[in-house]
Amino acid sequence: MKLQFLKINNNSFSGSLPGAVGSLAGLQIMLDVSNNNLSGVLPQQLGKLEMLEFLNLSHNQFSGSIPSSLASMLSLSTLDVSYNDLEGPVPTTWLLQNASASWFLPNKGLCGNLPGLPPCYSTPVAAHKKGKILGLLLPIVLVIGFVIVAAIVVIIILTRKKRNPQESVAAEARDLFSVWNFDGR
Predict the structure, then answer these.
(1) What are phi and psi of 107, to 5 degrees?
(2) pLDDT exceeds cutoff 70 at 143
(3) What local confidence, expressed as pLDDT, does residue 105 receive?
(4) CA distances for 97 relative to 58, 63, 65, 70, 147, angstroms
(5) Which of residues 146 and 171 earns the better pLDDT score?
(6) What is the model's pLDDT at position 172?
(7) Is the pLDDT of residue 90 over 90?
């Protein structure tokens, strides 16, 4: 007789989920470790539970990302990792194409092609390209901004000089003859 389900939820278990859980290959119906105080990263060995249908890891303090090995769990119909500190992409499997966003929220920063989750920025290469583009664009924008401000200042100075020659000649003439008009007071 093989163990078909393991339900150890609503306890005060703490520590990490051991990788040895992957050796429970006969586990078919359910693994429920929800509502505990488990922490650490989820073990890659979870993917060895290929016959498992229901996996509930919710309401713990798991961190890191969801193991990509979960994509090999072809029998999995429910995966609940809500209320943890997980981040990164949700593995893309046929199961998760129609998954409920409530299985994944709230978490630290999960992303994916599911309604309610933000899209992932595909790869670090894409993020690198974005940073590289921003690094090139910022100096160009600053130079263009400086040129526009400098052009405005030059235009203002030139328009004032065009008005000033006539005013300055009249002011010089007034100053030259101001002694003659002095009444002594």
Answers:
(1) -140, 175
(2) yes
(3) 84
(4) 20, 23, 18, 14, 51
(5) 146
(6) 59
(7) no
- Residue 34 neighbours by CB under 8 Å, 6+ apart: 9, 10, 56, 57, 58, 59, 60, 80
What is the sign, positive or negative, of the torsion defined by CA atoms of 68, 71, 73, 77? positive
Token readout for 67 is: 């193991």
> DSSP assignment, residue 127?
H
Question: 14: buried, middle or exposed (CB in 10 Å: 19+, 13-18, 0-12)?
Answer: exposed
CA 93 to chain centre: 22
Cα distance between residue 41 and residue 88, in whole Å: 12
Does residue 78 contact residue 102 with C-beta atoms inside 8 Å? Answer: no
Alpha carbon distance 81, 19 (integer Å): 17
The pLDDT-based confidence of 174 (bands split at 50, 70, 90) is low
